């Protein structure tokens, strides 16, 4: 008799789920003034009431959750700060959190849900390029706004996306130049097998050719790959002076451990990573990556008064062990930039906000960031840093001023072929 | 038609070094109930296995009607040649009804696409019905086969062998676990089957063998020890020595344990 | 370091650890009463049960041992690479493949399978790339199974299914 | 007796018709967003039917159906991508340094060819793998592992061949199908209706297939493959056929998925989604045709529902649900119904026997 009983409880549970689904459905329908065909009615509903809904869409489960959760936390922190200071347009921000589950179609689905059902004024989210590309058609079609906080490969400029991470010319290009000047000219390119490393390396190769660098090897490993013995054997036989590392996630842990096991030190061969920040160093273990380099726009040690406050607030909110890093900071100031643009526009209407955002500046922890009206990326300062034994990164070089974002590398002669083939 | 239906010529089955059957010569004549007896490990079941293709002969030939060699054919091809086998433990399909068990067993085109188009014909229905009548399972025809009693399962499997309308029927201990009444019935069934085909049976129960055998083969260590009627078998000194001698030993073991 | 071959201490330790594991599992399966029972259950569950072997207990112990060894393997992995909640998924396929190639229920097969796959993997990876290497390994395993459908080491049985 | 069978059939038919009409009229009472979700679930349901044909009826557990789903989806997506670029190269190809359309993409300029290949391509792959493995009697756990390895290998290949497949990002950003804008509500409703019709057709087709003698042969192969050999069947051929068929169905589901979701990427076809697909079938109840449909829709609805209500901890709920079902409903949800039916039947039989006894 017991089993059927529990079974019925289960069934009941299921029915509850369905009921919950349809309930939220009804609620959403009730919020919608009319059928959504009429474009002009769409945006007004977000201004209704005392709150403005904003969507937060990161992977809270799956392989990307480790990285994305902290960005989500930073964005929530920014929202909290804004609310404490009286909100935006006198209204409190109400974050609607969704889980992208490290699955790109899910990102598309949830972005659709946030825009169509919750009618959020803007979405802050994404990490991987794949997730951004999945959300792109959805935000364009619904004429929404997406703030994307991570450095990426460039070659994209959607009218509905603001890119607060670095474009390639704000991270990769200066890093290659700096390496050529300071570390040597034989390069080994190592990356995970996906769009960012492949595209980034295509640009690096063009740059090396133009600047007289030498490419001695290029390797891609599948995402999540953890055995780097053969790659290290190749590195050993090629003896490069610099390894340009675009590995992503866990692979870095394996690579640096095995590299250090193999006895290759930063003095022999320097590794410069563009996807390893303070958070990742915690996972890799500072002792095996100490002395290697990174290129970012922001480090926890960056010396600005804004950063001091940011790090303090972040640690106060999420514990003393929490570290800040570039994408975390980019997610954080993205929210503030949007809030500033909304204040300036006086409405959350997407077109008005986009117009108001042109040229707008904000004093972010990494320094003053300014939105470039042409491509909706931001001006950012570039910083090369060296990993310290305590897991922090110490800046060894920084650009004199914030660099203008150039996602298509149009300002570089050697990249002409690349950008031209795209313009077609 | 005195020609043998099935002829085994110097057949050896080698299980990585152990020769379960060793250069065996053996014949099955039509319309006979042919019993194979012998002590455990004599190779009786292996004999059936290598005829129906479950075990492969390492060397030698198995000829059907004196010509077709079966040793290289796949199991289903051997079945198509008219050889059907009943296994020791009932291996009917428990999740199918009695009727459905017979339905998939009966003689028909069993290739994929033929099967997809298959529909009941009148003759098929009639013959299945007759078969159900014969094994006394008319009442249970829509029950799941898994719910049948042990004896009924055995009969169902015999029936599944028969509806294939084979020329040669191989039965492995068909009366194991049956009551006296069920045994008698099975015996009658076997006699009836043998009217128009050859039946080869592996059996331990000597009374049963005595009652129904036309011819008996005694196997020992993978070879034929003796062949003849049951009376001849019982009186043969070689058989007594090997078979009964062993049996005495076994009895001694049993009492010892 | 010997020539171009380098053996970091961590790898040597793992090598030693796996040999210890192998020897102890061999000892357990082939030299102890419990191991004998386990093998009996594997070969004929019903018969073993009839002979008074508690199959439930054997199942439990075997599962425990299997999990334990997986745990040891996990420990060894910390010396090599990243540890995260999804680490298992990276190795599960390789582990299964080793069993398929080696033959289910065969200790020697598993070892030989692991070596075979490991060596071919490294060679393919070195000659081509990591992605293509994986594809080649898979094709090789499919081809191998055409030749030996039940893996390197086959345990024969007379049961029908 | 006969009349009750007819009644039963009629009863089923009525229930299914009502369900069908309910699904067909869903555009009238669901918002566009929800309709789109339901359409996606139904595409999954199509796949689940095919998977159950293979697992529930033929007893072959494939942990690699994501790949067939993916192949169908990619075929459709390749056409859509080409149409969106109006003959130009897709953007990811230009990044990867391609200057002209690779050979393998050429057939996908034509929508009909793309749709046909979306079914044939997965079917062909399944046929090759199936005949290579089943013919050699590689079955059970061996086959399951191989099917999973196939996923691993193909996903690696898909990710690695970025210049051909778009890598991890997959294919997205489509605009038109046959020149009709895809993202408009009316087009999406049409896709939904097509999905419902395809689901109904596959549902009825598979029911017909398994309810006859053919289905009994499949069950026979599931419960005693070797026994079937000695009844004169060649189980390898049957298994290969069902594997191929179920791959073709998965391909079809993949195409419908892409039309409605607008993106396909390797994350959708990898190991974890492939296992999830099996879970739908297990939850709904294998060995029935309606079970997998219920399972696929319910699990995905639960997934969406939980993750919308509790974005931080929804995975725990889903996991708990799986565990509960596996522990308490080992035969899935339809198993519950069957137990109930069996109990009723046994009660009836009980009465029947009593009556018979009283006559004696």
Structure description:
The complex is a heterotetramer of chains A (424), B (257), C (161) and D (360). By secondary structure, chain A is α/β, with parallel strands linked by helices. Among the domains of chain A are: 1-31; 169-301 and 382-422, 3-Layer(aba) Sandwich (Rossmann fold). In chain A, 46% of the residues lie in helices and 18% in strands. Chain A contains 15 helices and 15 strands. Chain A has helices at 2-31, 39-47, 65-84, 104-117, 129-141, 172-182, 195-211, 229-238, 250-261, 278-284, 286-289, 305-318, 326-345, 350-357, 416-423, and strands at residues 51-58, 92-99, 123-125, 146-148, 161-163, 186-192, 214-221, 242-246, 270-273, 293-296, 361-364, 367-371, 378-379, 383-387, 393-398. In chain A, a hairpin with a 6-residue loop joins strand 12 (367-371) and strand 13 (378-379). In chain A, helix 3 packs parallel to helix 13 and helix 13 crosses helix 14 (350-357). Chain A is globular and about 65 Å long. Chain A starts with a helix and ends with a helix. Residues 1-7 and 19-46 of chain A have low confidence and may be disordered. Chain B has 257 residues and is α/β, with parallel strands linked by helices. Chain B folds into two domains: 1-82 and 166-225, P-loop containing nucleotide triphosphate hydrolases (Rossmann fold); 90-165, no CATH class. Chain B has a six-stranded mixed β-sheet, with helices on both faces. Chain B has a four-stranded antiparallel β-sheet with strand order 2-1-4-5, with helices on one face. In chain B, helix 3 (98-105) packs parallel to helix 6 (150-162). The relative contact order of chain B is 0.17. Mean pLDDT of chain B is 86; it is low at 248-257. Helices cover 74% and strands 0% of the residues of chain C. Chain C has helices at 9-31, 33-43, 45-50, 55-78, 87-102, 107-127, 130-147. The radius of gyration of chain C is 18 Å and the shape is globular. Chain C starts with 8 loop residues before the first helix and ends in a 14-residue tail after the last helix. Chain D is an all-alpha fold and 360 residues long. Chain D has one domain (33-314). Chain D has helices spanning 2-24, 26-29, 32-57, 65-84, 91-95, 111-135, 141-160, 162-165, 185-211, 213-223, 225-229, 235-261, 271-284, 290-309, 314-328, 332-359, and strands spanning 171-172, 176-177, 180-181, 263-264. In chain D, strand 2 (176-177) and strand 3 (180-181) form a beta hairpin. Chains in contact: A-C, A-D, B-C, B-D, C-D. Chains A and D meet through helix 1, strand 2, helix 4, helix 5 and helix 7 of A and helix 3, helix 5, helix 7, strand 4 and helix 14 of D.
């Amino acid at each position: 008799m017991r089993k059927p009983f529990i079974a019925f409880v289960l069934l009941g549970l299921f029915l509850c789920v369905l009921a919950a689904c349809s309930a939220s459905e009804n609620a959403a329908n009730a919020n919608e003034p009319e059928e959504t065909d009429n474009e002009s009615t769409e945006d007004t509903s977000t201004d209704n009431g005392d709150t403005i809904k904003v969507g937060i869409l990161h992977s809270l489960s799956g392989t990307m959750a480790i990285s994305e959760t902290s960005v989500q936390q930073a964005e929530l922190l920014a929202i909290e700060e804004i609310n404490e200071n009286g909100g935006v347009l006198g209204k409190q921000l109400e974050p609607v959190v969704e889980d992208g589950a490290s699955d790109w179609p899910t990102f598309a689905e949830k972005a659709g849900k946030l825009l169509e059902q919750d009618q959020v004024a803007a979405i802050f989210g994404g990490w991987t390029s794949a997730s951004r590309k999945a959300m792109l058609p959805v935000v364009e079609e619904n004429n929404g706004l997406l703030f994307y906080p991570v450095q990426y490969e460039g070659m994209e400029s959607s009218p509905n996306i603001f890119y607060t991470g670095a474009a390639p010319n704000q991270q990769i290009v200066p890093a290659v130049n700096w390496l050529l000047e300071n570390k040597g000219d034989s390069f080994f390119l190592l990356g995970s097998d996906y769009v960012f490393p492949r595209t980034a390396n295509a640009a690096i190769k063009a740059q090396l050719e133009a600047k007289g660098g030498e490419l001695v090897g290029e390797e891609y490993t599948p995402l999540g790959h953890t055995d780097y013995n053969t790659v290290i054997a190749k590195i050993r036989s090629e003896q490069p002076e610099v390894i340009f590392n675009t590995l992503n996630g866990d692979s870095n842990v394996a690579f640096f451990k095995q590299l250090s096991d193999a006895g290759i030190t930063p003095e022999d061969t320097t590794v410069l990573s563009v996807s390893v920040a303070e958070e990742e160093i915690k996972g890799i273990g500072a002792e095996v990556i100490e002395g290697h380099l990174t290129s970012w726009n922001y480090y926890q040690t960056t010396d600005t008064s804004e950063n001091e406050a940011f790090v303090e607030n972040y640690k106060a909110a999420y514990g003393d062990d929490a570290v800040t890093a570039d994408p975390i900071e980019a997610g954080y100031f993205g929210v503030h930039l949007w809030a500033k643009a909304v204040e300036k526009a006086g409405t959350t209407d997407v077109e008005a906000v986009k117009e108001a955002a042109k040229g707008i500046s904000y004093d972010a922890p990494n320094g003053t960031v300014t939105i470039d009206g042409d491509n909706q990326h931001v001006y950012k300062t570039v910083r090369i840093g060296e990993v310290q034994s305590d897991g922090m990164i110490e800046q060894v070089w920084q650009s004199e001023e914030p660099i203008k974002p150039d996602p298509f590398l149009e300002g570089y002669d050697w990249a002409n072929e690349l950008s031209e083939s795209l313009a077609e | 038609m005195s020609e043998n239906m099935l002829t085994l010529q110097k057949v050896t089955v080698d299980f990585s070094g152990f020769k379960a059957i060793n250069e065996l010569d053996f014949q099955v004549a039509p319309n006979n109930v042919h019993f194979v007896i012998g002590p455990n490990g004599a190779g009786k079941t292996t004999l059936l296995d290598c005829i129906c293709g479950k075990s492969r002969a390492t060397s030698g030939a198995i000829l059907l009607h004196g010509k077709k060699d079966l040793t290289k054919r796949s199991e289903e091809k051997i079945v198509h040649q008219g050889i059907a086998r009943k296994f020791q433990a009932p291996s009917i399909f428990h999740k199918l009804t009695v009727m459905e068990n017979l339905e998939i067993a009966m003689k028909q085109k069993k290739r994929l696409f033929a099967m997809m188009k298959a529909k009941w014909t009148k003759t098929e229905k009639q013959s299945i019905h007759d078969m159900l009548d014969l094994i006394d399972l008319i009442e249970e025809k829509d029950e799941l086969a898994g719910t049948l009693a042990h004896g009924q399962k055995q009969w169902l499997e015999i029936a599944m062998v028969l509806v294939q309308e084979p020329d040669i029927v191989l039965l492995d201990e068909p009366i194991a676990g049956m009551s006296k009444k069920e045994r008698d019935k099975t015996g009658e069934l076997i006699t009836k089957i043998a009217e128009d085909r050859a039946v080869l049976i592996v059996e331990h129960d000597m009374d049963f063998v005595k009652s129904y055998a036309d011819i008996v083969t005694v196997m020992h260590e993978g070879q034929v020890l003796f062949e003849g009627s049951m009376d001849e078998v019982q009186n043969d000194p070689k058989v007594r020595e090997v078979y009964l001698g062993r049996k005495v030993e076994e009895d001694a073991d049993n009492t010892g344990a | 370091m010997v020539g171009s071959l380098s053996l970091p201490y961590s790898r040597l330790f793992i090598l030693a650890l796996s040999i210890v594991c192998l020897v102890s599992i061999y000892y357990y399966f082939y030299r102890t009463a419990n191991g004998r029972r386990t093998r009996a259950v594997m070969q004929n569950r019903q018969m073993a049960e009839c002979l008074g072997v508690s199959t439930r207990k054997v199942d439990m112990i075997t599962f425990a041992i299997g999990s334990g060894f997986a745990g040891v393997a996990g420990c060894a992995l910390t010396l090599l690479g990243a540890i995260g909640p999804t680490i298992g998924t990276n190795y599960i396929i390789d582990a299964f493949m080793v069993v398929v190639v080696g033959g289910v229920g065969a200790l020697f097969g598993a070892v030989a399978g692991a070596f075979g796959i490991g060596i071919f993997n490294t060679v393919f990876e070195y000659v081509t790339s990591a992605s293509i290497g994986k594809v080649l390994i898979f094709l090789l395993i499919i081809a191998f199974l055409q030749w030996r459908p039940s893996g390197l080491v086959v345990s024969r049985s007379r049961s029908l299914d | 007796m006969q009349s009750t069978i007819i009644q039963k059939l009629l009863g089923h038919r009525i229930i299914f018709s009502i369900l069908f009409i309910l699904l067909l009229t869903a555009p009238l009472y669901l918002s566009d967003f929800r309709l789109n979700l339901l359409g996606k679930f139904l595409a999954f349901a199509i796949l689940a039917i095919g998977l159950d044909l293979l697992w529930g009826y033929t007893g072959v557990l494939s942990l690699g159906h994501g790949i067939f789903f993916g192949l169908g989806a990619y075929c459709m997506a390749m056409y859509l991508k080409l149409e969106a670029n109006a003959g130009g190269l897709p953007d990811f190809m230009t990044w990867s340094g391609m200057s002209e359309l690779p050979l393998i993409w050429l057939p996908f300029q034509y929508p009909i060819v793309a749709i046909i290949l979306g079914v044939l391509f997965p079917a062909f792959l399944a046929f090759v793998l199936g005949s290579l493995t089943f013919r050699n009697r590689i079955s059970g756990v061996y086959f399951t592992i191989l099917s999973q390895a196939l996923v691993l290998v193909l996903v690696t290949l898909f990710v690695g061949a970025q210049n051909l497949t778009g890598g991890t990002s997959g294919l997205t950003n489509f605009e038109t199908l046959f020149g009709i804008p895809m993202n408009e509500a009316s087009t999406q409703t049409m896709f939904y209706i097509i999905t419902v019709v395809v689901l109904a057709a596959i549902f009825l087709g598979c029911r017909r297939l398994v309810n006859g003698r053919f289905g009994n042969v499949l069950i026979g192969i599931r419960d005693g493959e070797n026994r079937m050999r000695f009844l004169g069947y060649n189980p390898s051929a049957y298994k290969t056929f069902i594997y191929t068929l179920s791959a073709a169905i998965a391909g079809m589901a993949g195409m419908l998925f892409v039309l409605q979701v607008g993106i396909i990427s390797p994350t959708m076809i990898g190991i974890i989604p492939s296992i999830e697909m099996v879970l739908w079938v297990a939850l709904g109840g294998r060995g029935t045709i309606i079970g997998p449909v219920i399972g696929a829709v319910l699990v995905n609805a639960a997934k969406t529902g939980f993750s919308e209500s509790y974005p931080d901890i929804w995975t725990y709920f889903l996991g708990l649900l799986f565990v509960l079902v596996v522990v308490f409903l080992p035969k899935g949800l339809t198993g519950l119904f069957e137990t109930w039916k069996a109990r009723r039947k046994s009660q009836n039989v009980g009465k029947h026997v009593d009556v018979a006894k009283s006559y004696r």
